[in-house]
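User: Here's a protein and a ligand (ribavirin triphosphate). What would the complex look like?
Assistant: Let me lay out the input and then the predicted complex.
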Amino acid sequence: MALEQTFIMIKPDGVQRGLIGEVIGRFEKKGFYLKAMKLINVEKSFAEKHYADLSSKPFFGGLVEYIVSGPVVAMVWEGKQVVSTGRKLVGATNPLAAEPGTIRGDFAVDIGRNVIHGSDSVENARKEIALWFPEGIAEWRSNQHPWIYE
Ligand code: RTP
């Protein structure tokens, strides 16, 4: 069975609020595999590239400022339908509309401080992983867990 990969980023507010372990725990406990991770500060031009599709939006400037305001945790997670299921774990963009039980529903209030990013399609996941991990990803687990995957 081919497993998908997705790009997940804990945004600066999630890092500053001590939510790194919480986010990682939720993805791990679901049964997804952490394939790559780094804590980094990104340049303005890099944040603009990541959010290029939103460049015409009125909130674009504020969004880029927010992403460069502190370190972020960039991760690649792997698993069955991890892109769409990862978005469910993340919750709706506006945290006040996000269901309790989701990361944004449990830990955030403002749309501009919504803790986490998750790729919204397999194609965008591929692009975002290539952007954030140009060095590539080391293969460290070749066998799927027999108690998680049939
Ligand atoms: P993300 O890309 O961060 O996972 O978020 P998303 O797909 O749920 O939402 P998207 O529409 O791609 O927006 C990206 C991020 O921009 C900020 N935003 N602010 N002020 C506003 O109206 C507004 N709308 C979006 C949020 O931080 C959102 O996650």
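Summary: The chain has a mean pLDDT of 96.
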